Predict the 3D structure of the following.
Amino acid sequence: MISLGTIYQFYLYMTVSRTVCLGFLAVIAVGTILLLMPFSTSDGTWNDPIVALFTATSAVCVTGLAVVDTGTYFSFWGQLFILLLAQIGGLGYMTSTTFLIVLIGRKFNLRQKVAIQQALDRPGMSGSTQVIRSIIATTLIFEITGILLLLPVFIPDHGWSRGLWLAIFHSISAWNNAGFSLFSDSLIGYQSSLLVVFTISMLIIFGGIGYQVILELYLWLRDRLLKKNTNLVFSLDFKVATSTTLILLFLGTIAFFAIEIKNPETFGSLNLYQQLLVAWFQSVTTRTAGFNTIDISKMTTAGLFITIALMFIGASPGGTGGGIKTTTVRVLTSCTKAILQGKEEVLLYERKIAINLILKAVGVLVGSVAVVIFSTILIALAEPKLDFIQILFELVSAFATVGLSTGITGSVSLATKLILIAIMYVGRVGVLLLMAAVLGDPRPSRVHYPEENLLVG
């Protein structure tokens, strides 16, 4: 019989980081069991355990990498389970569980408030209930809007029932940056559809930019429409996330257009309007979304490498995307700028960046690079016949929870699939959070050591 002392010790052992990490594993386990069942496959047979595990992990980690054709391999129930797992993964484990707490009318305890703060990367713990409600409301508004915009395209092509399901599936998948599609060629068949490209792009961008940014934008628009005299000051998070996102989208579009325009298998055979539309969508989808309107395997090596760089950067904190985040990149580039200018402070929009944030950004970058290098070596040993660019592309896509692939996912060995599963999980929970779960929360030290200069660079 388990004693109260044992339960208390387990409660102390379950730190916030461990709760989040184990929570994601629990959801993946449940999803794997559901996808194993005969009613989840289109042929009514028991699913391959590796296929079920890989798909469940990819869905919960909102990655979109698939070892089978989602639209034909899985039944309606299997597709529904994938969509629900992606929704839970996009919201985050803590957001999903605390939403259930809100529904049953319970109040948050201190640990749950701390968990929400860390999971959403918020500066404080106040207003946790309002935050969860606003996140759910924002999610529903954008997903329903996406469904309504996609219906005029999908219903004429596939009929009412099929068209409705396609609109629901792709809207939710896009908002959560999951990248799962029910079409065998993703969205290549709709590469010239302005409505599809616009709708999916906006869902990806707003889903990945973060809930706090959307809330501030809503408050600003509300004040302007109601002609209120309140002077809303945008937060540093808003300024950094929006400006970095716009810069990356613009540079990505220009880069893809310039590099792939002479490639007859991607951009070369399209007219100027289609080329610009495809270049824009490719710039958007590399930000952890996973949809594609061109054949990724036919891209040039330069195009693939640009895609890798954009995937590695990823979306913004508090959103549904992955990667090292836009804010991390801006902090690091601002550090570089400060060093080149001979400054001892790192500034962003006339605000000083705290040293702990700089250390966190460095930790995220170093940890992420280490994970990618180590896993690339492992897969290179397991798959000696694959090109290096294919291995690196697949690894970064898995780590940044993007889902784009050069087409090798389904044909790799069991060992490689297991490595990709682990990398998708690490990328979703975050390197620092996972290390905190393994090592335990850091304890402050009162010991201070003398400074000494060191040659660097």
About this structure: Residues 141 and 395 are 33 Å apart (CA to CA). The two ends are 59 Å apart (CA to CA). Confidence is low (pLDDT under 50) at residues 7-12. Residues 128-439 form one domain.
